[in-house]
Design goal:
Blueprint lengths: L3 E8 L13 E8 L4 E5 L6 H9 L6 E6 L2 E2 L5 H4 L1 E4 L11 H11 L4 H14 L15 H13 L6 E5 L7 H18 L2 E6 L2 H7 L2 E6 L2 E6 L1 H6 L4 H6 L6 E4 L1 E3 L2 E4 L2 E4 L11 E5 L4 E4 L5 E2 L1 E7 L3 E8 L2 E8 L10 E4 L4 E5 L2 E3 L5
Parallel strand pairs: 3-8, 3-9, 6-7, 7-8
Antiparallel strand pairs: 1-2, 1-4, 4-5, 9-10, 11-15, 12-13, 13-14, 15-22, 16-21, 17-21, 18-19, 19-20, 22-23
Helix pairs in contact: 3-4, 3-5
This protein binds adenosine-5'-diphosphate and magnesium ion.
């Protein structure tokens, strides 16, 4: 098991990159702590697989270094890195039995046959394939083959890290939950450093202790689910995480006041006078509707009942604002203002969060 350090790392698939836009992975300095479970979250094309493949050694970065426990492995081949990687689509040996597929990484390392037998049995149990151990992999469903790939990824106990690249894509929904639970318990049992790539926030938030959010080739925030919810460091994190995501609106900010669409509101904290494109970010959970005089004027467009609560879709001078209203709370026709709970208001300048001034 290892701490993994990314030092000045960047990658371009082009032979002669010129500007930042040419980089699939923009310059990155980051430590993955030994024994932590991380989710790497971001939309398609943001560079998740590129980063994972650099860590495992399938790809050599065009710039920077990778260290395992402070040892430089940048140019080391995959075999020397001692990493297990599971991909989005199954990689199995069709002519081998399920048992031999699972045993493969252990036999490769010359493990003791009795140990292999027990460990394979244990893994087969985890992936629910004890009954099919002696069947050939050929002819099994994509779902079953992917479970074998997962099992093979988990079979070795002595790896530096386990990397999963959207491994549950082809798995049916009810098995997804089951397998994710297995991965978590595997993490508790062996304490491997794990990086789990997904574009699904629910998967990320339920799997990991720390979520690393990527956007456009960059890590924009690493934090606990609570940190990502309360203090999104980038507007992308705000609206990518949450359901619905954070509301973002143009504003002018000066000290502890903001002006939104001509109306002044209090922020509760001072922010100086941020330069650049200034926006407020407020999650729907921190907004309430009001029939009073205070707050920002809105028009309610729709109310959606989603069971646990209602989502109110309102219009603030052309910007859609979502408000979460608790079940049982009344929404009356004269509610034409929104009021922010200042504890949940973040200020952004050019998409990055501005820290409030300490009084
Ligand atoms: P993700 O896994 O987050 O969907 P990727 O790491 O696969 O993203 O891709 C990041 C960017 O790099 C994308 O713009 C993608 O088109 C590009 N890319 C990925 N693989 C290659 C490749 N082998 N050659 C050239 N460009 C690539
Ligand atoms: Mg990918």
């Amino acid at each position: 098991m290892a701490k993994i350090t990314l030092d000045n790392l960047a990658h371009s698939y082009l032979p002669n990159p010129t500007g930042e836009d040419d980089y699939a992975l923009k310059e990155l300095n980051h430590d993955w702590l030994d024994g932590e479970a991380y989710a790497l979250l971001g939309s398609s094309g943001c560079g998740k697989s590129t980063l994972l493949n650099i860590i495992s050694g399938l790809l050599h970065p065009s710039q920077g270094r990778i260290l395992f426990n402070d040892r430089d492995v940048t140019m080391a081949p995959t075999t020397q890195r001692n990493i297990a990687q599971v991909f989005q689509f199954p990689v199995v040996y069709d002519t081998m039995t399920v048992r031999d597929n699972l045993a493969f990484p252990l036999r490769n390392r010359g493990s003791d046959p009795a140990y292999i037998r027990d460990r394979v049995q244990q893994i087969a149990h985890m992936i629910g394939m004890e009954e099919t151990l002696d069947r050939k992999a050929r002819g099994l469903t994509a779902d079953a083959k992917q479970k074998i790939s997962l099992g093979r990824g988990m079979v070795r106990e002595d790896v530096n890290a386990l990397l999963f690249d959207e491994p549950l894509t082809v798995i049916d929904p009810h098995m997804k939950w089951e397998l994710r639970t297995q991965l978590k318990s595997l993490h508790h049992e062996f304490g491997h450093t794990m990086i789990y790539v997904t574009h699904d926030q629910t998967e990320a938030l339920t799997f990991a202790d720390k979520v690393v959010v990527m956007y456009d080739g960059r890590v924009v925030q690493m934090g606990t689910p609570q940190e990502l919810f309360e203090t999104p460091e980038h507007t992308f994190v705000g609206y990518f995480i949450g359901s619905p995501g954070m509301n973002v609106m143009d504003a002018q900010v000066s000290g502890d006041k903001a002006v939104v669409g001509g109306t002044e509101i209090s922020l509760g904290k001072a922010f100086g006078t941020p330069a650049g494109k200034v926006e407020l970010g407020v999650r729907p959970e921190f907004i309430s509707l009001s029939a009073g005089e205070a707050g920002l004027p809105v028009t309610i467009k729709r109310v959606e009942d989603v069971g646990r609560h209602k989502i109110v879709r309102a219009d603030l001078q052309g910007t859609e604002i979502n408000v979460i209203v608790e079940e049982g709370e009344n929404i009356s026709p004269d509610m034409n203002r929104i009021v922010f709970d200042t504890a949940g208001v973040n200020v952004y300048a050019d998409s990055w969060r501005v820290a409030p001034k300490v009084a």
